[in-house]
Amino acid sequence: MIPTITAFANSPDRGRGQARDMRVRWALEEVGQPYDVRLVSFAEMKQPAHLAVHPFGQIPTYEDGDLALFESGAIVLHLAERHAGLLPDDANARSRAIAWMFAALNTLEPPIVELGMATMFERDRSWFAERLAMLGDRVRTRLGELSRRLGGADWLDGAFSAGDLMMVTVLRRLHISGLLDEYPDLSAYAARGEARPAFRRAFDAQLAVFTAASRS
User: Where are the chain's structural domains?
Assistant: First the structure.
């Protein structure tokens, strides 16, 4: 049976591949698993059928037979544990790769998302400039720490893993702000991830959805 994931019928990121279904698409492409995509509108995401799979009314979801999952990190981990290519065989290296997945989602992504949300929704506030500077500094702190740990290596811990997949998708959120350009090693790291054939296939697939929606 081919698994089915959900994605935005009309993504607010305008096809830039920042919606969280991109992580799941990329993981599926990396492991060579065919998949179907069910597109959902914002209204459909709040309907009982979708809420039965994702209680918070978001995307992506993943359904494969009797298994239904939500949360992109949980879905990618599920795929990585059941298919070769995203987790090392060595038990310790495997655990470290999973730790990097959690670090991407819990340590790097929150300040990056907060910065992005403030930029989009708080520009008209009198305190915006001060808040923007504070949020930018928080992101720079994390980027500096990550840069020191990467130390010029191609990937976070040896070979490419699900930890890198998740980290690259988080770092890509900084392309518009330009903050990633302040760290050439991290910019190159993200570019290596984006150059992977599996990433390109996933990106093109999600971009095609936006392109079709914009034409309709």
Answer: 4-85+198-215, 91-196
Instruction: Note the CATH number of domain 4-85+198-215.
Output: 3.40.30.10
Distance CA 123, CA 117 (A): 10
Q: Name every residue whose Cβ is closer than 8 Å to that of residue 78 and which is 6 or more positions away in sequence.
A: 62, 69
Is there a contact between 105 and 142 (Cβ–Cβ < 8 Å)?
no
Task: Say which CATH architecture domain 91-196 belongs to.
Answer: Up-down Bundle (1.20)
Q: What is the pLDDT of residues 127-140, one digit of tens each?
A: 878 888 889 899 99
Alpha-carbon dihedral angle through residues 104, 108, 111, 115, given to the nearest 10 degrees:
-90
| Single pTM value for the model | 0.95
Q: Work out the angle between the directed axes of helices 128-150 and 109-121 (0-180°, nearest 10).
A: 150
- Structure-token match 């009797």, residue found: 66
